[in-house]
Fold this protein.
Amino acid sequence: MTTSTSPLRDPAASSGEPVPPAPAGPTGPSGASGRAWPLAALDGLLAGGLAIAVATFLGGAMSFLGISTGTPAPIAAIGGAFIDRTPAWLKTFAISTFGTNDKTALLTGMGVVLVLLCAGIGLLARRSLTSALVGLALIGAIGALAVVSRPNAGALDILPTALGALAGIKLLQTVDQARDRGGDGLSRRRVIAGAGALVVGFFGTRFDSGAGQATASRAATQLPKPTGPAPSTAGAQLDVAGISPYVVKNDAFYRIDTAFVVPHLDATTWKLKVVGEVEQEITLDWATLLSKPLMQKLVTLTCVSNEVGGNLIGNALWTGWPVRELLAMARPKAGADMVLSRSSDGFTAGTPLTAMTDDRDALLAVAMNGEPLPFEHGFPVRLVVPGLYGYVSATKWVTELKVTRFAVDQGYWTPRGWSALGPVKTSSRVDVPTDGTQIKAGTTAVAGVAWAQHRGIDKVEVQIDNGAWQVATLAAEPTIDSWRQWVLTWEATTGSHTITVRATDPSGAVQISDPAPPDPNGAQGYHTITVRVA
Ligand SMILES: Nc1nc2c(c(=O)[nH]1)N[C@H]1C(S)=C(S)[C@@H](COP(=O)(O)O)O[C@H]1N2
Ligand SMILES: [Mo]
C-alpha cells in the first residue's frame, strides 16, 4: 500500500503533492501506472458492470419489442445454459439446499464469480491493458456463446452482448489512459459511469420481467364460466392449527422449473402446435381454447425432487380443457406411446400417451384457483396430469405437443439422470407438531397430509417411538387426484419422542419404507419427526 489515508485514494496520483517514497517489496508501489489496487479493481468492476448493464438493457429491449424470441440478455442466457447443464446430483443438492430459492442462489453465485473476474481484470489492466481488454472480450465471448446456445436464438441475439462488451472495453481503456495522463481526475467520470450502469441495468431487468404485452394480455383475460360446478371440498380441511391448507393459494404454491427468467408470453399471440405421429397436425390459439368447454379439477402437483417430509407439493383447483380432446382431433398414429410437451423456453416433458388420453382428465389448464395462471405457474397455458411428477407431465408455458415414442424421444430430465417414467409414489408427511420443537404434555393433535395421486389414500397410520401403528382419522377425499389430510390424537408424555407416518393406497399397497433419495424417480421412506414434550 501507499501511505494513502483513504483506501480508494492514491495521494500520489490525486494531489500531485510530494509524498514520501513508498516502501519496496511485494506490497510496494503498484504497477506501471502507479495506481492503488483497490482503484484498479474498481475500474474493472465498472467496466464489467457497464458491459452487463448495456447488454441486459439491450437484450431486455429486444425481447420486449419482439425482435428476439431467444434469450438475448447474457446473464439470463448464462444462467439458463448453466441450469440446462446441471446433472441430477447437483440438481438434488441445489434443491435440497436452496429449495425454491435455487435461482436466487445461482444468481448470487454468478454475481460473486463475475465480481471476482471483473476485479481481476481491473488488476490485470495495471500490468497490461491489452491483456485486460482481451480478458473482457473473452468474458463477452462466453456470454455470446451462451446466448446463441439458447432455444429459439436468432443471429441478432448476440448484438447486446457484443455491444455491452465493447462498452466495457471502451470504458476500461478510457479510464486507464486518463489515469496514465494524470491520475484521479476520473472520479467524476467513474461516478457517472457507475450511476449510468445501474440505471440502464435496472431498466433492462424491468424489460426482461415482461411488462408490456404479456402482462396486459393476462390482465385482459376473461375466463369463461366452466361447464359444471366446482368440485366440492367439503370435509377435506381438518380443523387443526398448522396443518397444510387443503387448497394452497397461488402465491404460496411451490415453484420449480428450469427458467432462470420467468417466461412472459402474450396470450393473444400464443399458439399450441400438435405435431409428430398424428394424422392431422393442429394449431390451437388462445381464443379457440377459451371457447372450449372447460372443466375444473382439484389436482395435487408434486415435484420429483421433493424429499421425504419436503414441501415441493401443493394442491390447487385447475380449470382447463381435457388434452384428450385435442389429441383426439389430431388422431395419434398406431405405435405412438408418448406426448413430448415443449415450453416456450425449450423445456420438455415426456408423458405416456395413455395418461394424456384416459379418463383421468389431463388438462390444458388456463386457470389456477379461479385466476388466470400466474406467470410463474405457466401463463397462459400449462399441462396438469394427475398421478405423475411434474417433471414428466406438468409443462408450463406449453407451446407444442409432439406425439412420439419413448424409444425415439426423451423429456428434459431423462438424459440428465432422471427416470423416463414418473408416477408419484405413495407418500405421507407430518405437518404438526413441527419437527424439532417443544410441545406441552397432554392431548395433542398429530396431523398432516398423504398423497398417492390418481390412486387415492385409504389408510394413514402413525407410530410413536417404537410403539404399535395407530390408524389415523382421515379427512374427506373429494378426489383421488389430490392429497388427503389425516389426524391422530396423542396423549403426549414428557420426554423426547419420534413420530412416524405411513400411508396405504386403495389396492392395499403400503408406502415403501426403504429410504431412497429423489433421483432417479422420487424419494421414498417414512417421514419421522422428533419433538420434546415438557
Ligand atoms: N416449462 C417448464 N415447465 C415445467 C418445468 C420446467 O422446468 N419448465 N418444471 C416441471 C416441474 S419439475 C415441476 S415439479 C412442476 C412445478 O410446477 P409449479 O412450479 O407450478 O409448482 O412444473 C413442471 N413444469
Ligand atoms: Mo419437479
